[in-house]
Amino acid sequence: MSSATTTEASHGAHAEAHGHHPPFLQHHFDTPAHQFDAAKMGMWIFICTEILMFGGLFVAYGLFRGREPEIFHLAHERLDKIMGAANTIVLLFSSLTAALAVRQSQVGDRKGTTRWLIITLLCACVFLVVKYFEYTHKFHDGLLPGTHFRAHLPAYAHHGHTLPYRAHMFFALYFMMTGLHGVHVLVGMGILTWVLKRNLRGEISKEYFTPVEIGALYWHLVDLVWIYLFPLLYLVG
Amino acid sequence: MATEVAVAPGHHEDEPDHMANYLIAARGVKSWLVTLDHKRIGVMYLASVILAFFMGGMFALLVRLELLTPGRTIMGAATYNRVFTLHGAVMVFLFIIPSIPAAMGNFILPLMLGAKDVAFPRLNLLSFYIYVVGALFSLFSIISGAVDTGWTFYTPYSTTSSSSVVSMTLGVFILGFSSILTGLNFLVTIHKMRAPGLHWRRLPLFVWGMYATSVMQVLATPVLAITLALLAMEKVLGLGIFDASLGGDPVLFQHFFWFYSHPAVYIMIVPGMAIVSELFATFSRRAIVGYFAVAMSSLGLALLGFLVWGHHMFTSGQSEFSTMLFSALTMLVAIPSGVKVFNWTLTLYKGSIWLTTPMLYALSFLVLFTIGGLTGLFLGTLSTDIHLHDTYFVVAHFHYVMMGGTVMGFLGGLLYWWPKITGKMYDESLAKVSWFFVFVGFNAVFIVQFIMGSRGMPRRYYDYVPEFRPYHQFSTVGSWILAVGFFILAYVLVKSLRSGAKAPPNPWGSAGFEWNTATPPIMQNFAVTPTITRGPYDYHEATEEELWDGFPEDFKKSEP
Asked: In this prediction, does ipTM exceed 0.85?
């Protein structure tokens, strides 16, 4: 293949060529800006994928709502608008704090970044706790998807009214859509925790804030999906 | 790999040597399993998809053998249903979809771009392991749980059939993520990792094909994911979205499924087109005629792929208006396909044609894909489709496209890049013999299926009336010829690995950028990032010598 001397010579040249590279720069990128652009574009494409994935559920929602608007209207009145609105505010606020975390990391304020990331994570926890109460309440009322639906039975009457059996479709969609969104909240929390860990280890700097930026980008997607779910499910039904 | 490597004093054994041939730069099984090198990941994918192709082929042989006689030949009807499900699912999800993009794309794409690696090497390795897990999961569930739905999982049969449909869909769901991550990685790589001077109009057509494929993978696969998730929930929770008795809609499943699976058909064929574009240029020693039109036609197919899913459902109960619209849109597919076929043919005209085995496969692609494409028009036409749908005519049509197209492109690409990947030459004359068997066998299997389909033989049936017996027998004998061809090819490749001659740097004298690295490439592909100063098919700029040997070390000019 190659003689010992040339191997060593080329190795030396190689090490020299990469000598000035900062530690976070991977070997196949030329500059930190190059690496940052690639990472950001990757996250944007992934967001496109996610939107198409939710797209299937939105299509199903549109189809079944178009077929039975009255039943969807009746069913949506059983959702708790107050809790839904509270969660919307919490998520919108968390998007702001995520953006502030990006800002602080860009100016090299590690403590500020940590603070805003922790607040974002706390907002996510609040969202999930509220969601937990909503779900248990639905379970209790027999508002369950598909064949598990019970709210049409007299025993589950709400203020003396029962829902028609076909309302189960609304709750099938409700649980699938908010469930998938909830999974995304969990994944987003995982990503932000990872970013937080790296920030605490001192790996984030003014020169390298890519993880904060793409983590926040993902978090905005989680927020954005909810911005559509809330009116569709809670408000217009 | 018995080449002698001098290890420099002080050079640690475990540390990969970036200037060494990628096959020997690091040693041991572990160095392969945790590698981030796109070439090694490509090789691991290649080995996996070839294994999947072998399995899928065995199931195909069993299906054909069963159909040798009416009634029971070697297996019962229930087993037959499982075997053809295995054949379809393995070939589609484990072989064709990852075959060219994940295996060859991984290896060749960064070389063509003059990049040291794909944009996200770790994501690349992750997508390989996701593929392996998904593959094992789905295989295990088909075999243990006897899934017999075919590869389409149509409701309501899939929701009422055996319970392992859930684990099967989960397996395919996992495989989908591997596909999405590969597509995402390639898109970013093509956008961000091109060498200086490699602007979009100099991009090799293989890269254009990979680009179109990746767009489809990223945008269509998530819809399959949510569809399969809903299907699984349908079985687990009794969701009812696809169940008419609960107010759901089984046709919605078909819409969702084909919204992915029609683009998926183009995810399968566009990479094949991408490979043969390279083959035609190299072995005609000419720039591809209408380069930019061919590049754009790949994107055109990607776009149209999203608009024609309804032509799989002409008889499923969608509205008459929809069927007309989808039929008209389907006819448009002929335009980008025609652009490609005519431009390839024109490239051959007055080209200096060199009939190597890869070129024979490229020419087979041209002929067989044209047959497959034209018979597609019969099926896209509403009135004829009423007669032909769900018959062997459909089976023959898509095998002409998938196997006559993609598999021929895959085999052509495999032999063309074999020296680049392994550093060894293969036995050209024996490879030609194997091509002959593959080509004749393939046509023998499927040409009669057009005839029996047009006479009413339904697809997927276990039994048939005696009138169809001669056709089925002809087809089954053809499958044996085909199998002989593949076994000869396997022998050629194994022999090359064991005792093939060392490959010269550019065995085909190609002007393609991937030949400007060492053969096989060094671990980091290029010692110095190259600067591109010409197009990938600029044979007209070549000197007499370069026309035979390729542009030797073209990039060296740009070294400081």
From this structure: yes
